[in-house]
Amino acid sequence: MRKFLTFMLVAVTLAAPLALGQDLQGQALVHEGLVTAPADQVWSALTTRSGQESWMVAHSEIDLRVGGLMRTHYDPKGEIGDDQTIENRILSFDPGRMLSIQVSKAPVGFAFSDVIKAMWTVIYLIPEAGSQTRVRIVGLGFGDEPDSQKMRQYFDRGNAYTLRMLQERFAAPAPVR
């Protein structure tokens, strides 16, 4: 039953743009790399407050359920809920294997606040030999319009940086909080 539900979640997540008539050929933005940690540890780093705050953001709040919110803030002086908070809605997940999110509220002043509404991200965790995890970040929903293509370039740099930071998080001992 779990495999069927996982299949259905992934199928719905990937079929959404086709239902909207979007052409995904060449539009998916993919970043992939190995993280030197087991998948359960990488999952925790991505989906828990303490995990996210250990490497990615200054502040985090996450309601890990379909429809739940992942709210993050990069500024240590800021706080969750202010106008610089980033809100992502959780579209689907398969614990320890896949998480899909979509920005539901961009920070005030974000350059692509109109076109980001059509974009979403799917993160896959694939266990590898030697307690490593292959992390695959796939950005979808980019259009042909200039602002969407500029946003794609923005996330190309941002997702590469995020993956690199996740790799570095597990390259050294976890910081003590």
Protein model, in words:
With 177 residues, the chain is α+β, with helices and mostly antiparallel strands. It has a single domain (2-171), classed as 2-Layer Sandwich (Alpha-D-Glucose-1,6-Bisphosphate, Chain A, domain 4). Helices cover 33% and strands 29% of the residues. It contains 4 helices and 7 strands; from the N terminus they run αβααββββββα. It has helices at 2-19, 39-47, 49-53, 146-171; strands at 29-35, 59-62, 69-73, 86-94, 98-105, 120-128, 132-140. Strands 1-7-6-5-4-3-2 form a 7-stranded antiparallel β-sheet. The termini are far apart. Mean pLDDT is 88; it is low at 4-25.
Rounded to the nearest angstrom, the radius of gyration is 16 Å
DSSP E strands, number: 7
Range of strand content? 25-35%
Identify low-pLDDT runs. 4-25
Roughly what is the average pLDDT, rounded to an integer?
88
**Given the structure, what is the number of helices?**
4
Give the second-level CATH assignment, the architecture: 2-Layer Sandwich
Total tally of structural domains: 1
Helix proportion range? 25-40%
Order of helices and strands: HEHHEEEEEEH
Strand order of the largest sheet: 1-7-6-5-4-3-2
Concise structural overview:
This protein has 177 residues and is of the alpha+beta class.
Provide keyphrases for this structure.
177 residues; 7-stranded antiparallel β-sheet; 33% helix
